[in-house]
Amino acid sequence: MDLSFSKEDLAFRDEVREFLQNSLPPDVKDRCDRGLHPTREGQIRWQKILHEKGWMAPNWPKEYGGTGWSITQKYIAAHEFGQASAPIATPFGVSMVGPVIYTFGNQEQKDQYLPRILASEDWWCQGYSEPGSGSDLASLQTKAVRDGDDYIVNGQKIWTSYAHYADMIFCLVRTDPKAKQQEGISFLLIDMKTPGITVKPIYGIDKENSLNEVFFEDVRVPVKNRIGEENKGWTYAKFLLGNERTGIARVARSKRQVVRVREIAAAEMSGGRPLIEDPDFIAKLTRIEVDLMALEYTELRMLSMLANGKKLSAEPSLLKIRGTEIQQRLTELMVESLGMYGAPYEPERDYAGRNDIHPGPDYAHGPMAEHLYLRAATIYGGSNEIQRNIVSKMVLGL
Amino acid sequence: MDLSFSKEDLAFRDEVREFLQNSLPPDVKDRCDRGLHPTREGQIRWQKILHEKGWMAPNWPKEYGGTGWSITQKYIAAHEFGQASAPIATPFGVSMVGPVIYTFGNQEQKDQYLPRILASEDWWCQGYSEPGSGSDLASLQTKAVRDGDDYIVNGQKIWTSYAHYADMIFCLVRTDPKAKQQEGISFLLIDMKTPGITVKPIYGIDKENSLNEVFFEDVRVPVKNRIGEENKGWTYAKFLLGNERTGIARVARSKRQVVRVREIAAAEMSGGRPLIEDPDFIAKLTRIEVDLMALEYTELRMLSMLANGKKLSAEPSLLKIRGTEIQQRLTELMVESLGMYGAPYEPERDYAGRNDIHPGPDYAHGPMAEHLYLRAATIYGGSNEIQRNIVSKMVLGL
Amino acid sequence: MDFELSDEQGMLKDSVERFVKDNYSSEARAKLADSEAGFSEDHWKMMAELGWLGMPFAEEVGGFGGGAVETAIMMECMGRGLVLEPFLATVILGGGLVTEAGSADQIEAIIPAVIEGNMKLAFAYAEPKSRFDLNNVETTASKSGDGYVLNGHKSVVYHGTAADKIIVSARTSGNAMDEDGISLFLVDNGASGLTRRDYRTVDGQRAADFTLENLKVGADALLGVEGKAYPVIEKVVERAIGALCAEAVGAMQQANEITNEYIKERKQFGVPIGKFQVLQHRMVDMYMEAEQSKSMSDMVAMKLSLEDEKERKRAVAAAKAQVGKAAKFVGQQSIQLHGGMGMTDEYSIGHYFKRLTTIEMLFGNTDYHFKKFAELSA
Amino acid sequence: MDFELSDEQGMLKDSVERFVKDNYSSEARAKLADSEAGFSEDHWKMMAELGWLGMPFAEEVGGFGGGAVETAIMMECMGRGLVLEPFLATVILGGGLVTEAGSADQIEAIIPAVIEGNMKLAFAYAEPKSRFDLNNVETTASKSGDGYVLNGHKSVVYHGTAADKIIVSARTSGNAMDEDGISLFLVDNGASGLTRRDYRTVDGQRAADFTLENLKVGADALLGVEGKAYPVIEKVVERAIGALCAEAVGAMQQANEITNEYIKERKQFGVPIGKFQVLQHRMVDMYMEAEQSKSMSDMVAMKLSLEDEKERKRAVAAAKAQVGKAAKFVGQQSIQLHGGMGMTDEYSIGHYFKRLTTIEMLFGNTDYHFKKFAELSA
Q1: Interface test with C, best of D278, D282, D283 (most C CBs within 10 A)
Q2: Is residue D60 part of a domain?
Q3: DSSP element (H, E) containing C199
C-alpha cells in the first residue's frame, strides 16, 4: 500500500495546473465556480481549447483521439479541473455516445462522428427517458418502423438536457413492439434538424431551461444511423450506463465547494463573530469534509483495484450515492452561510424588471441556483433509491 | 385551544407529587432512576403501596377497581411518576390481560383474576411470540387440543419477559390447525405451576435474565381458562395490542433522563471545562429535547382528540416510533457523557470476582445497562419498521 | 388542556380555506407569483372585506381582538395555498409594531387604514452583517433639529416594494449588538434619501434592499420610546415566528398530500411507486415531521400570550427549530419522491419546497433557534 | 498510488485469518470472554511463536520491522474475530512507548520479553477528570532522592490486570492540561503503593483502575526525558488509533456479513426479511459505512508514517471520526435487523455491537475527533 505519487505524476499535475491557469477563460471559470449552467458558446469555446491541447477525451482509446493517461493521471486531471473550477466536457458526446460509437459503431460511423465530437462540432443530447419510463427505462414507447432505407420514428422523450443546444441526439427506440421489454429496442443517432422533431423547453424549479421535451412526428432516420444490430439497443444502452462512472462522485468539485463555503463563512458574521467560528456551523462543515475525504479514498481504492486488473460490480453506485448526497449538503450549507441573502433569487432568462446583479455580496450570486438544480442530483442517472436497489442485489445478494 | 390546567388538576398534581415523595421506597426509586431492571420483591412491594392508595389501575373502569381519572389526570399522574422515577406497575397484568379479562372474560374469570392483579398476588407474563413468529405474530404454532374439560397444550413461546417471576401466563394457542392464520387461535390463561411447563432463561446482551423461553409439554389447561370463544383469540389479542398505547411514548421518563444527562454533564469535564459547556454535546442534547417537546405536545394533542370523543387510527405508532428513538438517543448520550467510565460493565448476576460497585462515579452505574437493554425498544411491541408499515397503510393509505 | 377550535375559530378556518380553494389553484398561484407585483390587490381587498386584516387588532381600533391562535389558524390555511399577499409583513409585523410601540396618533393614522386594506407596511430590520441577530443594528439615526437623520443599509425587506410605509430599526445610541439604543422609525416608501432596490425571492415573493443616505424624518416618525425598541421588536418577531410556524405546517401538510397522491398514481416497473417500502417509510417520516410541527405550532400559538418571558421564548425557539428542521426534510423529500416531475417549475411541489426553504431561514434558521433554546435551557 | 497488499502482507493476512478461524468461533470467544482472565495464555504464546508480537519492532531488538500497514492488516483480521488478547495494550501501546521513549537498557529489558510473549504491558493514561485529553494529567511524580514518589488515580486501564508492567503518565511539573511537564514511569504491577481494582468492560475485555499512594520508584523507572513525554504519548496513541480503526473495520465487515446472512435466512410473513426494501437499503447503508471506514483505515495506515505532523494528525482525526460514526451505526443497526435474536448474549452479533461501542469511545469519541479535525483544518 502506498499513497504517494511518482515523479512523473507530479510533473503531470504541474502541467495540468499550468494549462488551466493559462488557458481556462475567466468567464467560463466564473460560471462554473458559482455553479451556474454553462452558456453554449462558453462551453464550446472551452472544449475547443481542450481539443487543441489534445485533452478532450481522457477516457477514449488513444487511436480515436484519447489521451493515453494512466488511471492515476486521470484522477490527477479530474482533481485539478475541480480545484480550478474548470468545466469538464459536456458528457453526452464525449462520455456517452462516443464510447458507444467506437465500441459498437461501424467504420463509417466512427469516421463521421468521433472527430466531430472531439472538435465540438456536434453538441449531442440523450434520448433515453420518456414520460412513462423514468427509473424503469426499458418500458420506453417511442417506436421506429422500417420504411426502405429509413426508420420512421414517432414518440416523445423527456428530461432531455440541453436538447435546445443540440445538433444530434442518440435515442433508444422500440423496433419490435412484440418482443419482451428489454428486447426489441434499437439505438439510433438522429440529426436534430430532421423535419418532425420539436423541442419544447421544461423550466426547472430554478426557473431555467436546461431540460426539454423532444417530440418525434414521422421523423425519417436513415438505417445507417443505427448503432449495431436492430433490436440489440439495450446492450449498448447498458454499456453506456455502466460507462457513466468516471468522476461520478465529483470529489474534486466538492473539495472546491468546501473552500468556497469556508471563504463565505469567513466573510459572514453571526452573533458579532465570523460565521466560520460558530461551532454548529463548523460541526456541519466538518462532517461533510470527513465524509468527502472518506469518499475520496474510496474512489482511490476502487481506481487502485481497476489499475490492478480487478473488476468492480456495483461499487460505483456507492460513489454516486455518497457523492450526490455530499454535493447537496454542501450547496445547502452554502445557501445557509448567506443568511437572508440566500433568499433573493432571479433566473437568468429575460423578463420585465429582472435584476442582473444579486443584491447581496458577490458570492451570494450562484449558491441558490445550484442548490435548486442539484436537488436533481439524487434523482438523475438512476435515483439514489435505484442505486441502493442495485447495491442490494449485486453486492449483497439480497 | 388552551394549555392550562384547571385548579382541580393542579390540586391533583400536588396530591400525586406528595404521595410519591412520601410513599415511594428509596431502593425502588433508585433502581428505576438508574434504568436497572426492578427486583421482583421491590416491584411487588411498590405495587402493593399503589394498590393501598387505590392507584394500581388508572386505566380500568371504576367498577373493577380503576381510579376514575380524566385523561388529563392520567397524563398528570404519568408525568409525575416519570419525574419521580416511580416505576409503573408491570404491564402484563394490569395493562394487558386485565382489560382483556374485564372486556371479554366471564364473571367467574373477572372475580378470580382481577382482584389478584390489583393486589399483585399474581405476576403475569405474556405468551405471544414464538421462535418462528416475531413481527408476523399470527403465524404462531403452539397448539391446544381439546381433551374433555381440558386443553392439552404443546409448543414453545419465546422472548417472554419475566416468565421466571410469573405466576400466570396468558397465551395465544392454535386450536384449529386447518383454519386460516388469524382464525383458529384461542386465548388461554395458564397457571405457571402446571406440570409440563419449563422456563428457560435467555440472557440478554446486558447479560441479565429478563427474557425467557417457555416450553409447554402436554400441559393440561382447563377449558374454563379460555377467554371468550374458541378460535376467536385473535380478536382479543388485537384488542390487547391496540390497548397497549397508554404512555407508549414514555415522555415523562425521557424528561427525567434529560435532567440526569444534564447533571452528569455538569459533573464531567472535557478539555478542562464542564462537558455541559461543550457546544457539540449541547447541540445533541438540545436536538433531543426539542424532539421530546414536540412529542409531548403531539401526545397531548392526541389525548385532547380522545377527550373530545374523536378516534385515533395509527397515530399512536408515531408515539411509539419517536418515543423509542428518543429513549435510545438519550441513553446513548448518557453513556457518552461518562467518557471512558462508560466502558466498565458487569451484570448483576453472580460470578467469581464480580464487582458490586462501579469503579467510576456513582452516576456511572446504570447508563450502560439501560443502553444495552433499550436497544430492544425499537424492536419489541411491533418493531419500528412494522410501526411505519402500519402508519403507511392506515394513515397514508399506501 | 384542549387543542380543539372554538366555533368562531372553526368558522374562521373554513373561511380562509374557502378563499384558498377559490383563488389559489396552483396555476393561479404560479401566474400571480410571476406577475410584476407578485400578489393580487383584489385578493388584498377581499381579505380586508372578510375582516382578516383586522383580526389581531383590538376592537377599539376597529379590529376583532383575535390572538395568536387566530393568526395561526389563518396562516396555516394560507400556507396550504402558498398565499402571496403581504399579510405577515403588513398585519403581523408592521401592525404589531405600530400597536405595541406607537402613540395613539400613530395607531389612529395607520391601523384603521391597514384594516381597510388601504395601507401596507414592511419591517426593515436586517442588515448585511446582522444575519439573524435583531440587535445587530448599524444603521444610525442622529438627532437633527426636531427630527432625525438616518444612514445605513437594510437588507431583504420582504414586501418592501409594495409597502406604503417602512418601519426601520436604527441605532440612536450604543454600539452594534447592544440591545439598548435601538429605535424604530416610520419612513414613507419613496421618501427622499431612501433608495430602493427591488427583486424577487426564491419563494416567489418580492423583497427589497434599502439604502438610507441622510434620510431626514420628523420627530413624529419615531415609533415608541427612543432607544427602547428592542423588547418590542423581540415581542413582535416572536409573533411573526409563531405565524410562520403555522404557515409552514400548512405548507408541509399540503406538500405531503400532493406527494402522497403522486406516489399512489405514478407507476414504475408496473406498480405505483407508493408500493415500494422505502418510499412508504420516507412518506411516514415526512408525515411524522409535519405532525410534530403541527403540535409545536399549536403549542407556541397558545404560549405566545404567556407572561413568563423565558418560558415563552423557549417555546418560540423550540417551535421554530422543529419547524425549520421539518420544513427542510419535507420540502427536499417531496422533490425526491416526485423524481424528475418534482424538478419542474410547472408542477406545484417545487413551489412548496422553495417557500419551506425560505421559512426555514426567516427570523433565524434551525441552528440559530436550537442555540437560542439551549441558552434558555442552561 | 496503490491500495494493494504486497506478497508478504498477503501472507500475514492469511496467517491471522487462519488463527481467527481456528480459535475464534463465536462459542469459543464467548467462553473466553466469560473466563476469569478474559483471554487465553495459549493464544498469546501462539501469537509470539507466529512472530506477531514482534511485528512492529525493529529488527535490532528482534522484531520484524513492520509498520502501521502491517499492524492494520493484523488488527483488521482480529477485529473480525473480536480477538481478546492484549495485543493493542502490550505491543502497540506499551511496546510503542518503550521503543519511542526508552533507553537502550529499558528497550533491552522489555522488548525481547514482549516479543517472546513473556511480558505484558498496559498504559495508564486516563484519569477520572481527563476524559479524552491526554494532556489532562493530575497524577503527580515528585522527585525524592534518586527516584520519584507517585500519587494519583488512573482510570480504565485496559488489560491493567494482566500486565506485568504498567506505564503511568504523571506530572513532574506544570498544571493539569499543560502539555509540558508530563513524564512516563514504568511501574511493576503489584508494587507497594499501587492499589488495583479489577473489573470487566462491556466489550468482554478486562480493565482496572489504579490508585497510586506514595508509590516509590527509582530513577530507572523514568521512561524518556522528564517532562517531555507528551509528544511521545501523542505519537503512540496515533498508532493505537490507526490500529483501532482497522480493528473496527474488521468487526464491522464481519457484523455486516453476519447480519446479511441472517436477513437472507430469517423468514417473516412467508418471505426472507432480506426481501423487504427498507431492510435492504439499511443493509446497503451499513455496507457503505464499512466501505468508507475501510478506505479511511487504509489511508491512515499509509499516512501514519508522514513527517508532516498536521497532515498526519488530520488523517488520524478524520479516520477515527468516520470509524466512530460508522461503528455506532453498524453496531446498532446489526442488532435492529436481527430483532429479538440480536438482543441475546448467546448470539454473536451483540458482541460485535458492544466492541464497536467501546472502540467508538477509546482514545476520543466521534465528536472529539471531529472537533480535532476542525481545529486542524481552521
Answers
A1: D278
A2: yes
A3: strand C194-200
pLDDT, residue B353, reads 65
In whole angstroms, what is the distance from residue B113 CA to residue B101 CA?
Answer: 8
Q: How far apart are CA C174 and CA C170, in angstroms?
A: 11
**Residues paired with residue A186 on neighbouring β-strands, in sequence order:** A173
| Parallel/antiparallel/unpaired status of strands D165-171 and D121-124 | parallel
CB D110 within 8 A of CB D165: yes
- Render pLDDT for D131-142 as a digit per residue (tens, 0 to 9): 999 999 999 999
Tell me, what CATH number does C97's domain have? 1.10.540.10
Where in the sequence is the domain holding C174, given as residue range(s)?
122-227
Q: What is the 3-state secondary structure (H, E, C) of B49-65?
A: HHHHHCCCCCCCCHHHC
Distance from CA of D242 to the nearest CA of A (A): 15
Residue of B3 and C232 predicted with greater confidence: C232
- Sequence letter at residue C54: G
Q: Is residue C132 within 8 Å of A276, Cβ to Cβ?
A: no
Residues D112 and D130 both lie in one domain: no
What pLDDT shows up at residue B79? 92
- Statement to judge: residues A199 and A271 lie in one domain: no
Contact of D97 with D186, CB cutoff 8 Å: no
Question: What range defines the domain where residue A181 resides?
Answer: 124-231
What is residue A239's predicted lDDT score, i.e. its pLDDT?
86
Q: Chain C interface, mutation test: which of A129, A205, A209, most C Cβ atoms within 10 Å?
A: A205
pLDDT of residue D61: 92
Please provide the size of chain D in residues.
Answer: 378
Question: Does this model's pTM top 0.90?
Answer: yes
Cβ atoms B210, B165 nearer than 8 A: no
Residue A125 CA to residue A122 CA, distance in Å, equals: 10
Q: Tell me what pLDDT residue B267 has.
A: 97
Specify the DSSP element, H or E, that contains D81: helix D68-81
Residue C2 forms part of a structural domain: no
Cβ–Cβ gap C284/B2 under 8 Å: no
- Any alpha helices (H) in A156-312, and if so which ranges? 233-243, 251-267, 279-307
Do B129 and B263 belong to one domain? no
Domain boundary (D200, D227, D254) is at D227
Task: Give every residue of chain B whose pLDDT is below 50, as ranges.
Answer: none
* pLDDT tens, position by position, D243-285: 999 999 999 999 999 999 999 999 988 899 999 999 999 999 9
Instruction: Report which residue type is found at C137.
Output: V
- Interface pTM (ipTM) of the complex? 0.96
Q: Are residues D237 and D358 in the same domain?
A: yes
Q: Do D287 and A395 touch (CB under 8 A)?
A: yes
Beta strands in chain C, from DSSP E residues, in sequence order: 121-124, 140-144, 147-158, 165-171, 182-188, 194-200, 206-217, 222-223, 267-268, 271-272
CB atoms within 10 A of CB B151: 24
- pLDDT at position A351, please? 72
Q: What is the pLDDT averaged over residues A109-134?
A: 94
- The Cα–Cα gap between C267 and D114 comes to 66
